[in-house]
Amino acid sequence: MQKLGDFKLPQFFNYPPYFTLQPVRDTREKQIQLWKDLILDYCKTQNVFVIAVEDQDFPLFSNPAIERSLTHEAREAFLSALVSQGRAEWLDKNHRKCLILWHRIQEWANIILEFVKENGLENSVMTVEEIRSGPESRGTELHGIDRTVLMRALKLLEQKGKLAIFKGTTADDEGVKFSA
Amino acid sequence: MARNCLQAAELTTSGRPVLLPTEIECSLLSAVDLECEDLPNFPHLKSGLLILTTHRLLWLPESTAASSASAIPLAAITHIFSAKKSIKSMFASPRLRFQLSVSPDGRVSDSGSGSRSVVVTVVIRGKGDLDAFLNKLWDSWRGRAWEIVHEQAGSDVASGSGSSSGMYTREGAVRMVGVSGILRKEQEMWESTDKSLQDAFQDLNALMSKAKEMVMLAEKMRQKLLSGSTSQPSAENDEELGSKQEMQDWLLSVGIISPVTKESAGAMYHQQLSRQLADFVRLPLERSGGMMNLIDIYCLFNRARGTELISPEDLLQACSLWEKFDVPVMLRKFDSGVMVIQNKSHSDEEVFGRIKTLVTKPDALRTGISASDAAITLGIAPGMAKEHLLTAESKGLLCRDISPDGFRFYVNLFPEIDPNDMFSVKDYGIYSTWLRAACASG
Question: What is the per-residue pLDDT across B172-215, written as a single tens digit (0 to 9) for each?
Fold first, then answer.
């Protein structure tokens, strides 16, 4: 069984047709499904939030063991499939970078609320950076979260009146006040 | 109805008349009635296809029911009446009459030595050039090609390798086409050339006699092949077995003695061409596993026709007409646009079965198969093999792998993989077989 770091790869990762975009509809649908699952699984365990389509170092998109790698067209097809499912978003018009949402924004918001509750942070203030890298979030999924994803989740909560975001002098010291 | 006083004409499965050994079609008329008031047992022949050959007049019903095709040997015709021009004939359907000798009990005989004479009227209801047909009828009747056949058969038995004169119809007989036609044209040219040119044509003459021998040889081979297929192959000597393929190739060179031409068939051209093609392709199809590229058929067919070449458009049209006839072959267009001719009995399932066996071999599981691998195993052309692979792919049997190594096909594992647990591999099934083969390599 092949591994990427501590990530276990499925057996079909060594199946050469897995790396060629299949033209027949049924086969292609199944192939896309398997790619979506693998990408989400990998990003979740490895804490990867952004995939650059042309990134030659992204380990999933090539398999040196069988000397196969995905074409640009195939990469875009699989990521687009994630986008249309709401599990990813293109960060630019040209589809060069893709934000992977193994948790949807709503799910991230729930995780933040859970985090606030567990740590008794109601009515207290934290900076955005503290949520991402502070001692309170260590060991939780919020630790190392992508800033874009975090801000989107916080804004969603702000709309619901769960917290208030106030600006600091720089982007780094934006603060959050959690409601009771 | 009383017994049919005419002879029954044999038809091929695609509805073309089966011709006698040296018989050639000369002209066709459609929507023709045959009438004979003198004979009470004359069959009811309405609105059929009338074919004039060098030997016979054949009447085929519009809908091809093989039982009801009739034949009148030209030998039985004792007189052909010239067309009457009158005011009345301008308004009625054109007619043609000839006198036929029949035996006392009212049956048409081969020899024409019957004791009674009856008049048969041909009524042409459709469009057709009666005068041209009448002229050709006269030519064929006067040519007496059927007598020459008898003579030749006699001389062949006697001498073994016939002399240069017995093979060809003498002057006045109808034109021949195909390989034998070329030979005869050359012969005529030779005869009509001035004596002073004889030396120049010495070589040509030698070539002709060789070519004639080849035709006879091929014909003999064909007879041998036909008899060989029924006899036991056990005791045959090696030489004979080895030359079987060669013999089949020679057989192909015999060609079509009477190709359908625009001249002979007129408006019926494509329809008749289509039927002849259906008869012709049966043998090459059998040899190439039930399916052939249209281009290959085009080459073979034109080669067999000799001088009377047809255009690709004519071929395509002839193939397209097969849908309307009850013939055992069909035109098929692959998704890629490649067109092939295949037997109707040819089944994709059988081919898929063989492809499946091929791709599940350990080596193929590991490295896939290319079109040429499949071509070798299936015994067909690589282009055709690729079409089969693509069809198998579209059915979900295979999937593709495009890499710097080339375009290869693998057995399709995608349906075997559990979408809910991508790490699970069932202990049985093709996925685990593949896994074992893949692991064995690395």
Answer: 445 556 777 777 777 776 666 655 555 555 666 666 666 677 66
For residues B221 and B247, the answer to whether their CB atoms sit within 8 Å is yes
Tell me the HSE value of A94 on the side-chain side, using a 13 A CA sphere: 5
Are residues A31 and B414, on separate chains, in Cβ contact within 8 Å?
yes
How would you classify the pairing of strands B45-53 and B77-80? unpaired
The sign one gets for the Cα dihedral B386, B391, B394, B395 is negative
User: Strands B45-53, B56-61: parallel, antiparallel or unpaired by DSSP?
Assistant: antiparallel
User: How many residues in total does chain A contain?
Assistant: 180
CB contact under 8 Å between B396 and A19, yes or no, is: no
Q: For residue A146, how far is the Cα from the chain centroid?
A: 8
- Give the domain A3-100 fold: Arc Repressor Mutant, subunit A (1.10.10)
Among the partner residues A14, A22, A68, nearest to B400 by beta-carbon distance? A22
Same fold across A3-100 and A105-178: yes
Within B63-173, where are the H helices? 87-91, 130-143, 145-159
Whether A30 and B415 lie within 8 Å, measured CB to CB: yes
pLDDT reported for residue B66: 46
Domains and CATH numbers, chain B: 7-147 (2.30.29.30), 178-253 (no CATH), 262-343 (1.10.10.10), 348-441 (1.10.10.10)
**CA distances (Å), origin B140, targets B57, B134, B307:** 10, 10, 21
Predicted complex ipTM exceeds 0.90:
no
Q: How far separated are the first and last CA of chain A, in Å rounded? A: 49
* Residues 34-53, chain A, touching B (beta carbon < 8 A): 34, 37-38, 41
Architecture label for domain A105-178 = Orthogonal Bundle (1.10)
Give the C-alpha distances (Å, rounded to integers) separating B430 from A63, A65, A116, B351, B410.
Answer: 22, 22, 50, 19, 12
Residues 6+ apart with CB under 8 A from B213: B161
Distance CA A9, CA A60 (A): 9
Q: What is the pLDDT of residue B99?
A: 84
Best mutation site among A1, A2, A11, A40 for testing chain B: the one with the most B CBs within 10 Å? A11
Rounded Cα distance, B59 and B28, in Å? 10
**Residue B49, H or E segment:** strand B45-53
Whole-number pLDDT of residue B142: 85
